[in-house]
C-alpha cells in the first residue's frame, strides 16, 4: 500500500529515519521549489518495517481531470530504508500504478540522484531510465594534494593568482546575503537565464535559515578594496556537498572568483570529512562551456539519469495529440525530447 505524506513534521520524521538522503528530498526544499499550482507530496510504500519514499511535486493538467508529477530542480528520486533486496519490487510497481490510476496521475518524471545507487534497482521495471549527460564530482576521500593534481593547468594558474589578490570568507550577515543576491541576479541577467531562475529574495533567506540542511554561503572579496566580487551557495547533507547557486561581478570575471570559492569549499569540506563534492553538469546533455569549467576541477564523472513513467498511455497520447494539432511550426530537438510532451506543446501553443 502507498500512503501520501504532505505535512512538514511527518515528512521530516520520515526522511530523518533514513541512513541516506540529500537536501533535495526534504520538505523544506520542496516547499521552496514548488510553483503556485504544484503540491509537494512524499509517497511512502511499506513492507513491514521497511519503506520506500518517493518525493514529488503534484500538478494539475489544465483543462482536464488529470494530474502529473515531477521532481524538484536538482537530484531527487526514490530513497529507502535497508536494502533493495528487502522489497518485493514487482509489488511496489503494482501499488504505484494503482495509486496513480486512482488519483488520475498520468505521468511521473524525476531527475535521479547520481550518488544514490539503489534508485536504478527500485525503478528498473517501472517506465524508463535515460542518461541525460554527466555530472562532475570531486572525490573528497582523496587527500587535498591528490585532489588538486586533477585540476587543469590553466585552473591552477587562475587559483594561484586569485589567492594573492582575494580572500574567501563565510557569509553570515544580512549584508553578506544581500551581496550574494545582487551578484546572483546580475549573473542570471548576463547569461540571459530563464525567468524561473530569478528566485525571489525569500528563497535565499529560507536556504540560510533551514533546519533540514546546512547552507554555506562563501563570498570572495578583493583584498585591496574589500569589494565582494563573487559568491556561491553550497548545501551540505550527510556526506555530500552540492554546489547550488553562484554569481560573479562582471567587472572582475578575469580574477576567477568562483573558481577560488569552489577550491576553498573543497578544502573545507575535505577537512570536515565529506565524501562527495558535486559540481553538477552542463547546460544541456552535450558538452558546453559550463561543463568544461566544471571538468577543469575533476575528471571524476557520474551519469545524470532521468526517470520517465507513463501510467496511462492512451490518455497520454490523447493529451499530446490535442496539443500537437495546434502547433504551427517545426519543433526543436529539445522540444521533441521533452517529457511529458504535452507540457512543452502547451507552452508553445500559449
Summarize the entry for a quick read:
By secondary structure, the chain is of the alpha+beta class. It contains 13 helices and 13 strands.
Q: Can you offer a commentary on this structure?
A:
This protein is an alpha+beta fold and 350 residues long. It has 2 domains: 2-126, Aminopeptidase (3-Layer(aba) Sandwich); 136-303, Aminopeptidase (3-Layer(aba) Sandwich). Helices cover 37% and strands 28% of the residues. The chain contains 13 helices and 13 strands. It has helices at residues 8-16, 27-33, 89-102, 118-123, 144-149, 153-165, 174-190, 201-209, 257-271, 289-295, 313-324, 333-336, 341-349; strands spanning 2-5, 39-47, 50-60, 67-70, 79-80, 105-111, 128-139, 166-171, 214-222, 228-237, 240-248, 276-280, 301-310. Strands 1, 2, 3, 4, 5, 6, 7, 8, 9, 10, 11, 12 and 13 form a 13-stranded mixed β-sheet that branches. Helix 6 crosses helix 9 and helix 11 (313-324) runs parallel beside helix 13 (341-349). It starts with a strand and ends with a helix. The mean pLDDT is 95.
Amino acid at each position: 500500500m502507498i500512503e501520501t505524506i504532505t505535512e512538514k513534521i511527518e515528512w521530516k520524521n520520515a526522511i530523518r529515519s533514513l541512513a541516506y538522503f540529500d537536501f533535495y528530498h526534504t520538505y523544506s526544499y520542496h516547499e521552496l521549489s514548488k510553483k503556485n499550482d504544484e503540491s509537494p507530496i512524499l509517497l511512502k510504500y511499506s513492507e513491514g518495517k521497511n519503506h520506500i519514499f518517493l518525493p514529488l511535486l503534484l500538478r494539475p493538467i489544465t483543462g482536464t481531470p488529470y494530474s502529473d508529477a515531477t521532481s524538484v530542480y536538482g537530484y531527487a528520486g526514490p530513497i529507502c530504508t535497508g536494502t533493495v533486496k528487502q522489497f518485493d519490487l514487482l509489488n511496489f510497481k503494482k501499488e504505484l500504478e494503482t495509486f496513480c490510476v486512482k488519483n488520475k496521475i498520468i505521468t511521473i518524471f524525476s531527475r535521479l540522484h547520481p550518488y544514490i545507487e539503489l534508485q536504478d534497482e527500485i525503478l528498473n521495471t517501472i517506465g524508463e531510465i535515460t542518461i541525460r549527460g554527466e555530472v562532475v564530482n570531486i572525490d573528497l576521500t582523496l587527500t587535498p594534494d591528490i585532489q588538486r593534481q586533477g585540476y587543469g593547468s590553466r585552473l591552477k594558474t587562475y587559483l594561484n593568482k586569485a589567492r594573492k589578490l582575494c580572500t574567501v570568507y563565510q557569509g553570515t550577515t544580512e549584508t553578506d546575503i544581500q551581496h550574494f543576491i545582487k551578484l546572483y541576479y546580475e549573473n542570471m541577467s548576463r547569461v540571459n537565464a530563464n525567468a524561473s531562475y530569478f528566485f525571489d529574495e525569500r528563497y535565499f533567506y529560507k536556504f540560510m535559515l533551514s533546519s533540514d540542511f546546512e547552507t554555506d554561503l562563501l563570498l570572495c572579496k578583493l583584498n585591496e578594496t574589500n569589494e565582494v566580487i563573487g559568491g556561491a551557495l553550497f548545501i551540505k547533507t550527510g556526506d555530500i556537498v552540492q554546489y547550488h547557486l553562484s554569481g560573479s561581478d562582471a567587472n572582475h570575471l578575469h580574477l576567477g572568483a568562483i573558481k577560488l570559492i569552489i577550491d576553498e569549499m573543497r578544502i573545507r569540506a575535505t577537512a570536515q570529512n565529506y565524501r562527495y563534492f558535486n559540481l553538477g553538469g552542463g547546460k544541456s546533455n552535450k558538452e558546453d562551456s559550463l561543463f568544461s569549467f566544471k571538468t577543469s576541477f575533476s575528471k571524476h564523472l557520474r551519469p545524470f539519469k532521468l526517470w520517465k513513467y507513463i501510467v496511462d498511455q492512451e490518455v497520454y497520447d490523447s493529451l499530446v495529440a490535442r496539443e500537437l494539432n495546434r502547433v504551427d511550426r517545426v519543433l526543436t530537438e529539445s522540444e521533441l525530447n521533452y517529457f511529458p510532451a504535452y507540457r512543452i506543446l502547451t507552452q508553445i501553443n500559449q
